[in-house]
Amino acid sequence: MSTPQLRIEVASIDAFILRLFDRIDEANMPWMLAAGTRLREAFGTALIDLVPSYTTLLLHYDLQQLDPRQARELIAGALSDLSPETRASGRSHIIPTWYDPSVGPDLEPLAQRKQIGVAELVQRHSQREYQVFALGFTPGFAFMGLVEEALAAPRLTTPRKRIEPGSVGIAERQTAIYPVESPGGWNLLGRTPARLFDLNLPDYSLLQAGDRVRFEPVDRAEFIRLGGDDTPLESLQ
């Protein structure tokens, strides 16, 4: 298991990027969670925001309570002798997903490129549990991984102008769900009725860094019963 090598980079007058790792790895997450816990305890009310990603933490602090030198000292103290989080952290989610070309137009082309059947692609994407590494791009958009290497696919050369909420896709070795209508260049496999972004949810997002996600294939009837919109993507362009 790799251990973090802390590098502190200035992001703005009141924020630092804390770089713990150089490459994406599922084994990073226990360290990232432990670092987040330590930093929140150390900064207390002086912490404005702490945003995790695959390898870094963006730390935004209150300049009225701390100057940059004091903030650096708190960071160094909090992350000295760091140990990975050993307890199960985050929540587990089962995300019902209708895998179908009408809502996942890249499902068949991707299966063809990988020289496997659509059913096998669906089975291989849905059998794996994914870690939520970070939130970004749009509210509630969770970057998850890692997709098995054999299914990895680059982003589309030309992004689509409109992606429906709930669309499930792959980009490189990441998988994600579009929480709101937006442009996007991920390879779309299907759609879920789950609401990823909702002002009534804690922190407004169903998924948080450290959560674990498994996609559960459902048929069209179950997708609609759960509140899904089966309008084909092509008709919305």
UniProtKB/TrEMBL annotation:
The Carboxyltransferase domain, residue ranges: 6-207
UniProt keyword Hydrolase, yes or no: yes
Keywords, alphabetical: ATP-binding, Hydrolase, Nucleotide-binding
UniProt GO molecular function: hydrolase activity
Alphabetized PANTHER family for the sequence: 5-OXOPROLINASE SUBUNIT B (PTHR34698)
Protein name (record): Allophanate hydrolase subunit 1
Species this protein is from: Metapseudomonas resinovorans (Pseudomonas resinovorans)
